[in-house]
Amino acid sequence: MTAQLTGSSPKPAVKPTAKSKAPGRKKGTSILVTGILVVAALYFLAPVYWVVVASTKSTADLFATNGFAFAETFNLWHNLSQVLSYDGGIFVRWFLNSVLYAGVGALLATYIAAAGGYALAKYKFRGANLVFGIILGGVLVPGTATALPLFLLFSQMGLANTYWSVLLPSLVSPFGLFLCRIYAQATVDPALLEAARLDGAGEIRIFHTVGLRVLTPALVTVFLFQLVGVWNNYFLPLVMLSDTKLYPITLGLNNWLSQVNRLPEFYQLTTGGVLLSIIPLAIAMVVLQRFWRGGLTEGSVK
Amino acid sequence: MTTPPTRTDPAGAAAARPGRTPNTGQRGSGRRTSAVERAPWLLLAPFLALFILTFILPILAALLSSFTKVTRSGLFGEAGITSKFAGFSNYAQALADGNFVASMGRMLLFGVVQVPVMIIMATILALLLESASARWPAFFRAAYFLPYGVPGVIATILWSFMYVPGLSPLIDIAGWFGLSPDFLGPSTVLWSIANIVTWSYTGYNMLIIIAQLKAIPAEVYEAAKMDGASPVKVALAIQLPLIKPALVLTTIFSIIGTLQLFAEPQVLKTVSPAIDSQYTPNLSAYTTAFAYNDYNVAAAQAVLIALVAFALSFAFLAFTNRKSS
């Protein structure tokens, strides 16, 4: 498919403005490339469009009309109020749980990973390489491999089926520490730290005033990674939680979906719930994707 | 919320002490030195404590329990539980389970097809978006990346509506052409799952590749321009070799992800009878642990999954390194 690039402006410029200078001859290529991009966009957006349409339909229309076309009756507000009020507003609770697990978890995880990465980058101490090596191994361990034994461990500690059982594992981001260490090595100037020391600032204080500030771009990346990771996590809460009141949104919606075979009205609850849960993330993705680039490839395997 | 750090501080302080003692007498600025020596451990303490709790201990526990056999005496285990060293018998039992081995094979087949398709798609989209011919690159980039923010469970719920006869607009549309695709049958459902995974992660991989493309210095393009290289030539001869690290990284992440596949088949199971409780290795381990309550064999399965993921990642790394040298 790369052949379709033929004839486009010779320099694959980073600046999109370059195309304004492209002569008319390149117009065909531009249309072809854009056409491919549009087809790909249709693929990625079609299911989202479907759920927007489906959540405006009544259960009868859902099955009677084509999924990509709106029905005559507009049922969106009724469906959404059903979603929000069903079972005493359990959906809102699931949503807030997700915000707690992902938001608070990612925030603390970023701080903890920054402190660790900064320490490993800016101090020479015995055991530093060993500690880093072990943590690096943690990046490669599949998350699901630890979930089962973690459940057994937490059961013995009486932590299973509590908020802590999902929140505590969400506070650890080996990948985040890895990124922060690389970034701190490259950007935190030792002279700046020495100057702060001569001013009589304590080591921990220096980290908070100098280190965190310089690390900010990396922190945004780590935070976003962890936020999406925890928000999307399914296996860990599934293993840990049995009380539906503690469920994050993923588990809750799956709980609704599993009832559609017996009770068809759960189709409406599920589609409405999916729509409501996608909206904030869609906004977040669109707004934050430009922050996503920094540090992504710094950790790449060379 | 502050519990973890405060709880772990004593451990960090204790860990720092042995390092401090030998130095205090040697230098005049002993207090200063000890503070500098204690600081990294203080900063690392919260991470290390949580890392030990949620990584090291569970991994050790899994290893230990995979080599242990628990026997309950009495009809319901009321006469006590004894556990003893079992050697590799749990591993033997896991590997003798035809369904578990078959699920591994299924994931290999899945990975051999899905991972290249996804990485090639991501690479092409990245190259097109970074080419001068693309219009509205910011909009397309956001549209492709959006599915990454949709949790696997919700992505699967969405696509399951696309697959279920009666609901699916795709089957309706295919019907106009006299086709009746079955997305949930025994021979097709694996590729329906592959589609969900591709939908979810192509945009994410594309962004990693774009990040690497943006890192290519402008002089390289200038030189190619001087030589009169066509855009296709630039893509194949310059861009592809230079983004190799990103391609290796995304491929390894995808291999590990494939072996961990769980949410998609588990959710799709509700609508597709073709997916059994041991469809993927992780689903198998989950079933062994929670349906059969055999934690020891489940632990052996989890260790085997991790080992296969490691082995495949390193094999792939070795393969790419050999090819480039």
Please state roughly what percent of the residues of chain B sit in beta strands, choosing from under 5%, 5-15%, 15-25%, 25-35%, 35-45% or over 45%. under 5%
Quaternary state of this entry equals heterodimer
Which radius of gyration of chain A do the C-alpha atoms yield?
25 Å
CATH homologous superfamily of the largest domain in chain A - what is it?
Answer: MetI-like
**Largest sheet: number of strands, sense, barrel closure of chain B:** 2 strands, antiparallel
Strand arrangement within the widest β-sheet of chain B reads 1-2
First-last Cα distance of chain A? 27 Å
What's the gyration radius of chain B in Å?
Answer: 26 Å
Domain count of chain B, please report it.
Answer: 2
Structural class of chain B: mainly alpha
Architecture of the largest domain in chain B in CATH?
Orthogonal Bundle
Looking at the structure, the CATH topology of the largest domain in chain B is: MetI-like fold
Number of strands of chain B: 2
Counted up, domains of chain A total 2
Give helix % range of chain B.
Answer: over 70%
CATH class wording of the largest domain in chain B = Mainly Alpha
Number of helices of chain B: 14
Gross morphology of chain B = globular
CATH topology of the largest domain in chain A: MetI-like fold
| CATH homologous superfamily label of the largest domain in chain B | MetI-like
Describe this protein's structure.
The complex is a heterodimer of chains A (302) and B (325). Chain A has 302 residues and is mainly α. Chain A is 69% helix and 0% strand. Chain A has helices at residues 27-54, 59-64, 76-122, 128-140, 143-157, 163-170, 174-187, 190-198, 203-232, 235-240, 249-257, 265-288. The longest helix of chain A has 47 residues, at 76-122. With 325 residues, chain B is mostly helical. Chain B is built from 14 helices and two strands, in the order ααββαααααααααααα. Chain B has a two-stranded antiparallel sheet. The radius of gyration of chain B is 26 Å and the shape is globular. The chains are: A mainly alpha (302), B mainly alpha (325). At the A-B interface, helix 1, helix 3, helix 4, helix 5 and helix 9 of A face helix 1, helix 2, helix 4, helix 5 and helix 6 of B.
